[in-house]
Amino acid sequence: MSEPVLILEAVRKSFGALKVTDDVSLSVAPGELHALIGPNGAGKTTLVHQISGMLKPDSGAIRFRGEDISALTPEKRARRGLARTFQITSTIASLSVLENVALGVQARAAHPLSLFRNAARDAALNRPALAALEAVGLADRAEVPAGRLSHGEKRALELAMALALEPTAILLDEPLAGVGREEGERLIELLSSLKGRYAMLLVEHDMAAVFALADKVSVLVYGRVIASGEPAAVRADAAVREAYLGEEG
Amino acid sequence: MSTAPALAETAAAPAPRRHIRLLLPILLFGLLALAPLAVSLGMPAGWLALLTRAMIFAIAALSLDLILGVGGLVSFGHAAFLGIGAYVTGIMITEGRAEALLILPVVLGICALFAAVTGAICLRTRGVTFIMITLAFGQMVYFLAQALSAYGGDDGLTLYEKSTVAGLDLFSTRTGFFYCVLAALAGCYVLVRILVASRFGRILRAARENPVRVSVTGFDVTRIRLIAYVISGMVAGIAGFFLANHTDFVSPAFMSWQRSGELIFMTVLGGVGSLHGAIIGAIAYLIAEDALSHLTEHWRVIFGPMIVLFVLFTRGGIVGMIRKLGGGGGA
Ligand SMILES: Nc1ncnc2c1ncn2[C@@H]1O[C@H](COP(=O)(O)OP(=O)(O)OP(=O)(O)O)[C@@H](O)[C@H]1O
Ligand SMILES: [Mg+2]
Q: Residue A109: its chain B contacts at CB < 8 A?
């Protein structure tokens, strides 16, 4: 077994009296897809925010590629190879689809903030960005402003923006949220094609997707991990069935 | 899948739209370049001085547009940079150092320093707090200028000499000075436009819309805004240099909060974010101010509401209106 890329150690976070993250420890191995499931309000998004640096845990440690990143800003975590997507689509609406993806390419370029060279006509940015768009099937929409994409296309763009960073690990916060059956199936296929190349933490409500994709499943309820392990074992777990799966079918 | 080879061309805005975007600024600068001709054909000479003044404020409004329109940062202390530029110029001329090639580097240096220090503090805040803190720094410089008793204090400082450029007496004729200001305005416009289209500019634009996304993509948003703030302050300082040479006088009033407000007005009036909008706004503002102040001494009472109504109804300012007239669509 190789060393995990991402390790959470006893992470805790409260909003006032509400414990949103309650002593969470979990790890994701290189190339592994670790699904995080749990009912609405369980604290999944809040956990992803803490891993990506948008929120600070009250205590505990987050290790990424052997380094404690708990005190780092989101931009530093991203530059170390930790990418994320958002449950509520978060793109730059007025920039074109290609430009949105090129942001990530630019972040890892030699001169990410050069002042004078035109960015829109910069093949060093556009070529890898287009490759990421091709990977998610959005290449033909490259010139459209991101704000004009359909909901499903926006979800694919979110994914392309994360891929453009060439990350080691990707945090996926409900990539299938709100997409129709057909688009959902395409996204699931896409995620499965990414398996093995990136360490992924997948937050998802779609149980069919989770059990089709995950190498490992953890169940979060009221901020606590109540079960973690092989998908089949988690599915059979009595506590999980009672707390969560039972009501969802 | 077949778009890759054509990428270099397709990645920029489609060619026809790009030409339309260039049309307005080319027309604008073309008309400005012809203005002295109109005076020799019989327009009153005072008109050229008014236009010169308008172009000087256009440089300042343009610089403000970089942070306000492009970066989304409403600075209410921008006149401080105009004032610093004017005071440095005034003081150096008074001390017998009138050469522009000597003054401008000092102006740029001091403005950059002031912007870096105050910007680092202001940019820790957001929204209304940002507006209030920039206002506070602006007032700080205003009171500092009032306290400069060696250089006129409250009464201001009269200049008995104009700057030379590389030893040449370019500023002494009205037309000569006009073209120098026009050249500076055009230079600043091109420079800022290049900045906005660069990698840096793209991140600045993206951060206006969605700073969270930009930071999780690996960029330090505060640092990028600080760079923009410093550049913006430096360009405004250049406007101050020309203002001092235009009025032969500098006073604390150059950096009052009302001045900062006027700069915001000009930028919004022209249409934020397009850069030439700020130029058009500044020129329209100063011409309207001049015309109304001839009509009545209570012109401010008419002028203020007029601008507010105009901006409310056009949404997008003068440039937005032109775009709508010029055939719908567009951004
Ligand atoms: N900034 C905040 N301040 C206070 N409470 C918050 C804050 N953010 C989230 N919460 C609360 O924390 C709990 C966990 O929210 P979170 O969004 O992490 O849940 P989730 O598991 O992602 O749910 P969903 O499946 O609906 O996306 C919720 O009860 C929510 O109301
Ligand atoms: Mg959530």
A: 199
